[in-house]
Write a structure and sequence with these properties.
- The protein has 1 helix and 28 strands.
- It is globular.
- The longest helix is centred in the N-terminal third of the chain and has 22 residues.
- It has a single domain, classed as YVTN repeat-like/Quinoprotein amine dehydrogenase (Methylamine Dehydrogenase, Chain H).
- The protein is mainly beta and about 375 residues long.
Length: about 375
């Protein structure tokens, strides 16, 4: 009898423990069903900027997103758009993908615009440049935003508080900017000594925080394209000279020179630091680009891998997907095309309207932003339709 009572008591205890344990779990419902088992990383809750410009921001959770990859790209759709009011020349996401920055201008509106991605709420603007803003980049820790302009300055902002931390002056316009992967170095590319016809472009690097100059990487004409390799070993840059140089980031030692038929607008480096994609023009007639393309280079050997052609106009921007399975390219006529890197065959194409001058992928791979001549910034994501 005692054994029976003891057995019943144990059963009751175990049932109670199971009920309590079940209460400690929460079920996360994805906003978009996945096409494969739900292994995608989610965007973390939005950090709350206390005062960006004059707008107070409250936290909002960004829904879980499906990564933009070769096997999901056919479901890519525009889901949100923002008006900039002038030509969009650069876009960038914070590391967690919660904040989007866009800038550009042509005759006016040289401000940097900020939005919260989850809500679409404007966070105001960063004002200070007096001419076209060619590039913006967030620091890896998300604390700073750097911008470069035709006004011959690079500016570093505390974007949350809307304050200018540092303004760096240069001999000519500066048109490309990047933080090193470890966040310790800021690189700025542009025109150096416009009157010097021999070597009149450069990339300058600075120590983040002290803003003391570190190295100068010489080039020709203007540095419109620049990127650090994801492993931090190489700094790649060039553009107007039709060359793209590969330097050792630590000391400026030259590794390769990639020669192109025409100017290079932007470059991207694959996540494994093996491949450089250069956005360029294939054919010109009377200085007008009749066919755009993307040239692919092996960063380890300097060998030209392949040319991707048949864009109706010059290709202005390129980006690799976070997993390296896709290459995204956008041209001046408004063509957005995505290739699978396994065979470099096109898997997706769209013409959302207006020439595309800039694109960026969120670091988690769930969002794509494009912007261009119609003054509109568009946000794309993978949308599953069962």
């Amino acid at each position: 009898m005692k054994q029976r009572k003891w057995f019943l008591a144990m059963i009751a205890f175990l049932l109670a423990a199971l009920v309590l344990d079940a209460c400690s779990f929460s079920v996360k419902v994805l906003s978009t069903p996945t096409v494969s088992p739900p292994t995608e990383p989610s965007l973390s809750p939005t950090a709350t900027p206390t005062s960006v410009a004059q707008t107070a921001v409250f936290p909002s959770v960004t829904p879980t997103l499906i990564s933009i990859r070769a096997d999901t790209i056919y479901m890519l759709e525009v889901f949100e758009s923002f008006e900039l009011g002038d030509v969009v020349r650069s876009v960038a996401f914070t590391l967690d993908g919660t904040i989007l920055a866009a800038a550009g201008g042509n005759t006016d509106d040289f401000a940097i615009h900020l939005w919260e991605v989850a809500s679409g709420q404007s966070l105001g603007t960063l004002d200070g440049h007096t001419s076209i803003v060619w590039g913006v980049a967030f620091s890896p820790d998300g604390q700073m935003l750097a911008s470069v302009s035709s006004d011959k300055t690079a500016k570093v902002w505390d974007w949350r508080n809307g304050t200018l931390l540092k303004s760096l002056d240069f001999p000519g316009e500066v048109s490309s900017v990047s933080f090193s992967p470890d966040g310790q170095t800021l690189a700025v590319g542009g025109v150096d000594e416009p009157q010097n016809q021999i070597q009149n472009a450069a990339i300058w690097t600075f120590s983040v925080g002290s803003w003391k100059p570190l190295l100068k990487f010489p080039e020709y004409l203007n540095i419109t394209a620049m990127a650090y390799s994801p492993d931090g070993r190489w700094l790649v840059g060039g553009g107007t000279s039709r060359n793209v140089q590969v330097w050792q980031a630590s000391d400026g030692a030259s590794l390769f020179t990639f020669n192109h038929a025409h100017q290079v607008s932007k470059i991207a480096i694959s996540p494994d630091s093996s491949t450089v994609a250069a956005a360029t023009c294939e054919t010109t007639v009377n200085d007008l680009c009749m066919e755009g393309g993307v040239w692919l280079w092996d960063l380890r050997t300097g060998r030209l891998i392949q040319k991707l052609k048949e864009f109706p106009d010059g290709v202005e921007s390129v980006a690799f997907s976070v997993d390296g399975s896709s290459l995204i390219a956008a041209s001046r006529d408004g063509t957005l095309r995505v290739y699978a890197t396994s065979d470099y065959q096109p898997r997706f194409e769209a013409t959302p309207g207006g020439g595309i001058e800039a694109l960026a992928l969120s670091p988690d791979g769930g969002l794509l932003s494009t912007g261009g001549t119609n003054g509109e910034v568009q946000l794309w994501k993978i949308v599953y339709h069962p």
